Amino acid sequence: MLDRIRGRLRTFEKEIVITIVHIRGYLRRLQRSPAFRYLRRDIRAKVGGVIVLLVVFTAIFAGFIARHDPTTQNLSNRFQGPSWEYPFGTDDAGRDIFSRVVYGARTALIIGTLLVVVQTSIGLPLGLLAGYRGGKVDNLIMRLVDAVLAMPGLIIALAFVAVFGPGIYKVVLALAITGWAGCARLMRGQTLAIKEETYIEAARAIGEKDRTIIFNYVLPNAISPLIVMMTMTFPAAILLSASMSFLGLGVMPPTPDWGYDLNAYKKFMGDPMPAPLMTILPGIVMVITIFGFNFFGDALRDAYDPRLRE
Amino acid sequence: MSEPLLKVQGLKTYFFLERGVVKAVDGVDFEIKKGEILGLVGETGCGKSVTALSIMRLISSPGKTVEGKVIFEGEDLLKKSGEAMRKIRGTKISMIFQDPHTSLDPVFTIGYQIAEPIELHQVEEQHLISAKEVPKKVVEMLKLVGIPDPDHRVVEYPHQFSGGMKQRAMTAMMISCNPSLLIADEPTTAIDVTIQAQILDLMRDLRRKLGTSILLITHNLGVIAEMCDRVAVMYAGNIVEQADITTLFGSPKHPYTRALLEAVPKVGAKRRELKTIPGMVPSLITPPPGCKFHPRCPHAMDMCREEFPQMIEVGKEHLVRCYLYSGASKK
Asked: Chain A residue with minimal CA distance to B87?
């Protein structure tokens, strides 16, 4: 019995080691790849990458970075200006604005990640299917995509939230209603091009199943524009969800959210109680974040497109 | 006489386009015996590759094989289910493509790709070998096709291989399950002349070692002369002449075959302008009536313009589709 457990553990250990070796090999290959070498020289990639890493780090370690609880109110401490204790000051309920911004990064990234996952898992298989099968299936899926792309995304999302109520997950779903279409269209185009490659014909000539061809031959060759698209989805998701919260139909109050805060603080922009820094500082953080993601995405796109590399 | 390995009868593959039906293959008959190399020659666009793809049932929309039989080892492939056909591809019939640079998937290693058909057919479907033996077999295959240092080259990617080596790797992938028929669609067109000879040697070797029949598609008559036992000449979707290699090169009958042979430059021949075949390959949507070659044929007669000629046997296993050799022309 014990031996068997030990044996199991040993094989498990071996598998872990193999996985690590695989990952190391992959990273090494990645480092040597022309795309990565390009990224290392590109200033946008450096600036964007640093910002992205900073935001991700902030989101993960929000609890250590924030010096106060983002939701605890302290009415005797309202409208403090920026200080060492409260870098961005405090708001009308005495909450630390900096802490709210830090935790807001977490909200923003959760929404971004979930949206990427949701819309990719809808758009990717549909696009692959449409491109690979062609004919009626293609027509059906692509007309649906056309129809979805003809709808104004933000309005549809607002309508969805208006019906089903606000909240992080509902915001993600609301944005995914229209978001998947672009992904599907991109994948279909890629699939159409790759499908004509001789190695796909060769795969069919050795008797591969359609399923294997789609996932083992087409997908790995179509992945780079998809990665770029996923990177570009992040800033869009952050901006859109912030817009929704700003309009009061996004993430709901106790959860710190950039859009909601901007909306809540905008009444202090001018008279009767001018405290413009309350809005401006979180606003700048948000702009820089989106800027960083876009920068990084742009560089990534160029890195994957050899024609733009020179 | 033993039953041929592959017998193609009245094969018709059409492409249904908006501007009309392209009759790419319009009634093709031929057979390949066990261990034989049959050459299929013809100009670009005469239906050679479509014939090959029809045999493999790899024609995709808007193309369709509308008629005919492809009898392989006694069974009609055109009547098989998709799943049964998939199992035949790669195991019994496989195909080498023209351009080795695009026939290998750039994102996987050579070894991974050669392992693919072995894993798929021999491990999963036929249980001939266990999964553990696959890497060994892959290296063996690479050795068989003459790739130096196979132990190290298996883990390399296609871009690290030269054209000739890619074609070898491709061949290794295609013969890994010992097919009885190998279709080689212009296997030497995209590679260097010096390497061409090596690839052809390799194919001849395979025939000798494994007894594989080969359908060699090419427009290079030199390759045909070098390799084949028998030749079929194709023109605009039909086979116009079929004979064994010495007969065809020694006494070609069809005017098209003769013109083709004359268009080959010869080393040491007196300098003169190279002969060409006048005119253009006919449109396959609206082919000329009667014999499709008549607009370009120096011997065209009235009857060539009216009726499509049948195959006539002019010698032992020597077939020609031309009125010049039918009794009718003499009258």
From this structure: A207
